[in-house]
Structure formats: C-alpha cells, structure tokens
Amino acid sequence: MWACTSIRVVLEDEIVSDVLERFEKSDRSPKVYTLSIADGEAPLDVHFSRVKDFLRENMADLRQVAEVGEINVYTTWTPNDPQDGLQLDEELIALLASVGGYFLLDTLSDG
C-alpha cells in the first residue's frame, strides 16, 4: 500500500493566518495551500491520526480560515489488493465538520 495525505486550504483572497504559515502555496494554483501530513508506506491510520492531531491543535485558527476559505483532507491511495477499504472514524469526521471541511480520496491502481 502507498498513500499520501495532506490538508488543503482553498482561498479566493490571501489572508494572514498563523496556521497558514505552515502550508505551502501550490505551484498549480495560487489559491491552494497544502500541508503534507504523511506519505509513503505508513498505514492510513497513522495518516488519519496525524490529521486529527493537527486539526485538534489548530482548531481556532482553522475555523477563522474556514470563514473565508475551504478546507479539505486529501488522500491519494494505492490499495494492496484489488478490493480494499479504509475507515474514517467519528472523531475525524467531527473535526472536519467543525471547520466545514470535507474528505477527498483519490485512488490509484496498477490495473
């Protein structure tokens, strides 16, 4: 299994935010800021645990960002088997919902 998870913020206008200083501005779109959370062969539960930690630790700042932008968790994933699954637990869903965020999954396969 290979996966890459990031938190992304999409803004129409630039804002000043302490939390955004940790993000990188996208080369493809000046409106997108990305913070890499995990990549490689770490299990998805490690990725999602790190996302939850970041959301918990930065909730106040992220809520301010969410007032003027969009927040999402983006995971690119290559499953080990043709049929595989992942689980988003209640806490991750609740934390994302509290900043008006959503989850995007991009699957890649060899087939």
Give the structure's gist in a few sentences:
The protein contains three helices and five strands, in the order βββααβαβ.
Keywords:
111 residues, single chain, 5-stranded mixed sheet, globular, alpha+beta, 3 helices, 5 strands
Report the average pLDDT across residues: 92
| Total helical segments | 3
Low-pLDDT ranges:
none
Q: Shape from CA axes?
A: globular
Main sheet properties: 5 strands, mixed
Number of strands: 5
Instruction: Tell me the series of helices and strands, N- to C-terminal.
Output: EEEHHEHE
What is the helical fraction, as a range of percent? Answer: 25-40%
- Strands in their spatial order, largest beta sheet: 2-3-1-4-5
Radius of gyration: 14 Å
Q: Assess the beta-strand content as a share of residues.
A: 25-35%
Straight-line N-to-C gap = 14 Å
Structural class label: alpha+beta
Report on this model:
This protein is α+β, with helices and mostly antiparallel strands and 111 residues long. The protein contains three helices and five strands, in the order E-E-E-H-H-E-H-E. The chain has helices at 44-57, 59-66, 90-98, and strands at 2-11, 24-25, 32-40, 69-78, 102-107. A five-stranded mixed sheet has the order 2-3-1-4-5. A hairpin with a 6-residue loop joins strand 2 and strand 3 (32-40). Helix 1 (44-57) packs parallel to helix 3. The longest helix is centred in the middle third of the chain and has 14 residues, at 44-57. It is globular and about 45 Å long.
